[in-house]
Amino acid sequence: MPSVLSSHGQFTDFATAHLVAAYTSSGPTNGVGWPGTNRAIYIPFYIPSKYVIRKVFWANGSSTSGNIDIGVYDKFGNRIWRMYDGVSSVGQGTANTNPSSTTGLPIPLDEGGYYMAMMLDNTTGRVIENNTGNSDGAEEVGLLQQAVGSYGLPSTATFAAAASSVWPSFCFTDNASLTL
Amino acid sequence: MSDWLVSGTHKEPQRVISVASQCAIGHTIRYNGTGLGTAVVQTAKRIILVPFQLDDPFTIRRMWVGAGAGGTAGNFDVGVYDEFGTYINSIGSQAYSSANAPQGAAVTQVLMPGRYFMACEHDSVNPGVRRWDNSLTGHWAMAGVMEHSNTTTFPLPTGGVTPTALAHSQIPLFGFTGSTVI
Asked: Which of A48, A140, B27, B35 is the most buried (most CB within 10 A)?
């Protein structure tokens, strides 16, 4: 297992791997603002062995706003961990930086399938993202979403078909000392 | 909920491991949007550290870099460090002899399963090197690419490196092969 599990890494590249390059031919961008207020985007991934998440990073785009949440769900949609502790909102941070958090970590993951999730509470903040071209492409590569309604990733995901083509860039690491 | 396709195991032929390998940052490179190009070295004496992991032992027999178009004046070094930045091996200072061809040197090093950094350094901005470029360095950073900063020395330090946040937009094409020729 690598130290860094990226939302664009080898363990999120699965059944439609051979199509992904075509969908994301435009490369990463600064984004055009999060596609929906309090919208969660779920990215499936599979790990072949145990892994302990000790830190999370996200890649901010050219403008930031409001608050962000990142989390992990099991394959049934049960939340295992989220960055927001339910009390103190997590600000998105400075534009064009890679902020991090260790709140609520470490958490161990066994071999298996999971979802990594991200949400923003506004549509102004930008994260570096790849774009699948359209929401059909997002669906076809396995991205899901949820209109949560309020800030904070839910305890149970209600998966819905992707309504945007955004594939945000963030990662987990088992190295709590890592700086990216 | 459909079952996950087990694709996390990456049993690729153990002959060439480069920055574009699946066990390195091949997926991130795939999503870069723009393909492999060529340019002069971005910053002299700046070490690029690309993470990779091995599930099986691999014997390095040659380390190389993909020379690009343009100038060939200058030298390069390619090496490997463990995930903590401890030096393992490198080929030392090598002079570019031609453009548009992979160049390197023979070195024998057995790597056991684990995590490593492959490292590349140039002593000047004169050589042309094949590389991927993206000004959104967060794209590379989210894959774990790092650099050894504030270095004024060449070649790669045998005393180890301190991986720090990436400030480079270009990822050169370099790697290792398990044969004596590439």
From this structure: B27
Q: Which tens digit of pLDDT belongs to each residue from A59-96?
A: 999 999 999 999 999 999 999 999 999 999 999 999 99
User: How big is chain A by its Cα radius of gyration, in Å?
Assistant: 15
Residue among B140, B148, B176 nearest B15 (CA)? B176
0.90 exceeded by pTM: no
Per-residue pLDDT of B86-109, as tens digits, reads 999 999 999 998 888 889 999 999
Chain B residues in contact with A157 (beta carbon < 8 A): none
List, as ranges, residues 57-116 from A with C-beta within 8 Å of B. Answer: 57, 59-60, 75-77, 96-98, 112-113
| Chain B partners within 8 Å of A59 (Cβ) | 136, 138-139, 141-142
User: DSSP labels for chain A?
Assistant: --SEEETTSTTS--TTHHHHHHHTTT--B--SS-SSTTEEEEEEEEESS-EEE-EEEE-B-S---SBEEEEEEETTSBEEEES--SSS--B--STTS--EE-TT--EEE-SEEEEEEEEESSSS--B-EEE-SSHHHHHHTT-EEEE-SSSS--SB---EE--S-EEE-EEEES-TT---
Residue pair A128/A66 in contact (Cβ under 8 Å)? The answer is: no
